[in-house]
Amino acid sequence: MKKVYIETMGCQMNKSDTERMLGMLSYMGYEETKEPEQADLLIVNTCSIRQLSEDKAFSQLGVWGKWKHEKADFKPLKIGIAGCVAQQKAESIFKRAPYVDFVLGTHKIYALPEIIERINKGEKVCECTETNATEDNLAKNYDIKRVKGVNAWIPITEGCNNFCTYCIVPYTRGRERSRLPELIIKEAKDALNTGFKEITLLGQNVDSYGKDFKDRNYRLADLLRELNAIDGKFRIRFVTSYPTDITDELIKTVVELDKVCEYFHIPMQSGSSEVLKAMNRRYDRQTYAKIVQKVRDMVPDVTITSDFIAGFPGETEEQFQETLTAIDEFELDYSNLAAYSPREKTVAARWTDKFIPEDIKDERFQRLNKKVQENCLKSNLKYVGREMEVLIENFYEHKGKMINTGKTRNFKTVHIPCDKDLTGEFVNVKITGAKTWYLQGEIK
Ligand code: SAH
Ligand code: SF4
Ligand code: F3S
User: Fold this and answer.
1) Do 110 and 156 reside in the same domain of the chain?
2) Cis peptide before 240 (omega within 30 of 0)
3) What pLDDT is attached to residue 133?
4) How far is ligand 1, taken at its centre, from the CA of residue 85, in Å?
5) Angle, nearest 10°, between helix axes 248-256 and 220-228?
6) Strand order of the sheet with strand 78-83?
């Protein structure tokens, strides 16, 4: 049996693509290996959100290129690149990395089986056009090879129409397309039948799900209702929410449905209305504030997390401070942070005269990081003394003690000392302490 190794570098969407590729490859007789040295086929599934992620992709290819050369005498090695860097750079990758056998863009992952046949005949293949290879004709030929665990990720929308001025995703993932509810529900049922306890619906803007359906009026709230009606004990989550696409109906649905968890990821990106405008985000500070307040008022114990960019072109010290105050004022429970990185094709990348020097970006990033840590601890402290349901995800040894870790419904990580492996179980836990990144608990 031939062996394949896939290095996955990107977001959950990218990880989900890896699971789909492994499904197709297994159908073609490839077995997954966790050791790249053992593989006959090496694939790097890339991310291009920041320059650093793109550089990582090419340095990985460089290492494998050397192996290909060294091993040429005793084992023919094939190398492929997939994901967002592949989509963006297409044929030009062959020039920079001539040892690459195939370049597979994000729109064409279902063409993988055909590509593998062609490269095994000695061809070099680049499939990066934007026409989507539709999933229905190919989907029947594979089962998804999900990474074993508790949570199954299911993409519900692909692409993005928002064109924030810093972001490459609309160029690497194309326009927004919603997947059919029938397909999503089938995938959810399959995952639950094989033991998964949580379904996370994925999309760049999950709350605009269904806007593009011409033959039906069906939105995220409808999908949540149908999923919630599936028998059995499990949880449902969804990420990422674009602030102004969160409808009252969606919030009400979250409250109403027992399986849908009290968690919203609502990236704000900047606390300054001027910067938000330059970013082409469709809200200002006040609008964001109102949305977050509404979610907090309607959903008890909700966790709200965000993303922020430090040092967007032209960001002044005062504007940066508005981001710091936003984190406090809106009591954001946790935020992902990034220093601005100029990306090819994007509008902001042309504003070179407004670029913020690296040292200032770094310094702002550090200050943001400190603020996020403070708030995370503050948010965690609220739950000490409470009883919460935890879905156990992991069991491991730490300093001679056995620990179960898992998540509450509102996405807090809890560490529970316990000798028995409870992975996949729902347990009632008394919260006994809070650290910056997790809660401590005891089984009731
Ligand atoms: N669709 C989501 C974000 C997806 S990209 C949303 O609109 O909120 C994930 C995060 O990467 C973004 O929220 C942003 O904070 C960060 N990001 C995107 N492009 C970036 C860039 N050029 N430089 C730094 N961070 C970036
Ligand atoms: Fe990127 Fe903006 Fe789309 Fe999010 S909404 S993926 S940040 S363009
Ligand atoms: Fe995801 Fe990175 Fe592409 S964040 S959508 S893999 S650019």
Assistant:
1) no
2) yes
3) 54
4) 15
5) 10
6) 30-32, 2-8, 41-46, 78-83, 102-104, 125-127
The domain boundary, picked from 69, 92, 127, lies at 127
* Separation between Cα atoms, residue 327 and residue 342, nearest integer Å: 24
Identify which of 162, 163, 175, 209 to mutate to test ligand 2's pocket (most ligand atoms within 8 A of the CB): 162
Q: Which residues contact 63 (CB under 8 A, 6 or more apart)?
A: none
Question: Is the residue at 178 inside a domain?
Answer: yes
* 335 Cα: distance to centroid of ligand 1 (angstroms): 12
pLDDT, tens only, 47-60: 999 999 999 999 99
Question: Both 299 and 343 in a single domain?
Answer: yes
CATH value at residue 406: 2.40.50
Res 354 pLDDT > 90: yes
Question: What would the pLDDT profile of 88-137 be if each residue is shown by its tens digit?
Answer: 999 999 999 999 999 999 998 888 999 999 999 999 999 998 875 556 54
Q: Choose which residue among 50, 87, 163, 177 to substitute to test ligand 2 binding: the one with the highest number of ligand atoms within 8 A of its C-beta.
A: 163
What's the DSSP call for residue 16? H
Distance 47 CA to ligand 3 centre (A): 5
- One domain for residues 218 and 335: yes
* Ligand 3 atom at minimum distance from 106 CA: 3
Chain-wide mean pLDDT for the chain?
A: 95
Distance between Cα 14 and ligand 3 center (Å): 6
> Would the pLDDT of 138 be above 80?
no
| CA distance linking residue 383 with residue 432, whole number of Å | 9
pLDDT of 436: 97
**Encoding tokens for residue 185?**
């529900």
Q: Give the ligand whose atoms come closest to the C-alpha of residue 52.
A: 1
* Residue 140 scores a pLDDT above 60: no
Residues lining ligand 3, judged by CB closer than 6 Å? 10-11, 13-14, 47-49, 83-84, 168-169, 172-173
Is 112's C-beta closer than 6 angstroms to any atom of ligand 2?
no
CATH number, residue 33: 3.40.50.12160
Q: Give the closest residue (by CA) to ligand 1 atom 1.
A: 204
Atom of ligand 1 nearest to the CA of 266: 8
In terms of domains, do 160 and 278 share one?
Answer: yes
265 belongs to a structural domain: yes
Note whether residue 438 is domain-resident.
Answer: yes
Q: How confident is the model at residue 145 (pLDDT cuts 50, 70, 90)?
A: confident
Q: Is the pLDDT of residue 237 over 50?
A: yes
Q: Domain span at residue 271?
A: 151-381
- The tally of domains found in the chain comes to 3
- Protein residue closest via CA to atom 5 of ligand 3: 169
Regarding whether 333 and 266 lie in a shared domain, the answer is yes
Shared domain check, 210 and 88: no
pTM, full prediction: 0.95
Per-residue tokens: 341: 């990185």
